[in-house]
Amino acid sequence: MKAYLANGLFSIGDRYVNDLLARELRAAIPQIDLYVPQENDAINDKNAYADSLAIAQADLNSLKESDVLIAVIDGVEIDSGVAAEIGAFAMLNRPIVALLSDVRQQGRTNAKKIEALIADGTENQFIYRNLFVVGLIKQNGVIATTIEDVVALVKELGK
Fold it and tell me: Which spans of this chain does the record mark as coiled coil (predicted)?
């Protein structure tokens, strides 16, 4: 199985999550051929140079070859590169497994939170994700809340 891991890759937090997720996927699914853009020094060694066309071509080629897209959609907003990768991959009609680990998903049935939101829209204690991107994920995939769930879902797809 070929898979593509999409996430931001410029902050220490993103790189840490990418390393952790890649390590867990590779340990649980030894036969996985996992493309992690941050591991591609030809386009992501920031001491070197790669132009936008080289970056687009490398990532698009890997997306086209992949059986599944694993996309981290955490953060203040979905990373713009991840959103683009989801859009491109959705056109292939292949499965997408997304990770949204934001703790603001908790307490969705808390009546006080809902009442506060209804009374004052600025009291939104919930998370928002772009609904177009969420819809693209849901057309052929699922949104998980833990790394363990992502690994289990991808493993199941590989059977």
Answer: none
